Amino acid sequence: MSERADVTGPEFSGLSDVVSLTSAPQQIADHILSGIAVGALPEGTLLPGERALAADLQVSRSSVRAALLRLERLGVVERRRGRGGGTFVSNAEPTALAPMADRIGEFHAERRNLLDARAVFQNSLAATAALRRTDEELTELRQLAQRYSERAEAGVARTADAQFHFAIARAGHNPELVRMAIDIDTRINAGFRHDPFSHELFDHAVADHAAIVEAIAGQDAQAAGRLCEEHFRSTTMPPRS
To answer: Which residue intervals define the domain HTH gntR-type in the entry (predicted)?
Structure first.
């Protein structure tokens, strides 16, 4: 079994935006299954407790309990009692996920559309930032790009990356653009981060961030937008099979 990963923190916040109370157990189960399928919840991951999940999702504990029971019956999670117990991802093999193949396929299609929309939108955000940024904001972007380059570990790197890109959104001096950026990011990552991470992707992102900052510094809106869109496509959107 792989090293235990604890996702009881903010990685599961935001699910209430995408879970309907009318079919909460199935939708909660679907979402967790999708996270397992894309590798965001590897084997050995400790899921949040019923109380924490219910609070995050704003649903009853009975709905959460029913969702976890469905996953247990599928054989993809197991419950352990006693000290150090909880609900763990126990089987992330494709054969275990086969009963949900159609739903997982739908999830991947929906997510690819969202990733495409985000890449297009980030083009506009970076272009706008290049034209409207202040010297202080440019300094902040340089600092955030440097901070990201020092965070070669998945969790902290993703946080630093988000801080960098939201700073670009703020440099457009339009709160609605920031709100839209947060909304689409929440829809993509609702519940847990799915973005792939590897040292190769990290090194690629470090170079991308530096190039984006220089384009914004030079107030080259076209280059800033193009570089930012290419960055999102190359680091978050796997090639079509």
So the answer is: 22-92
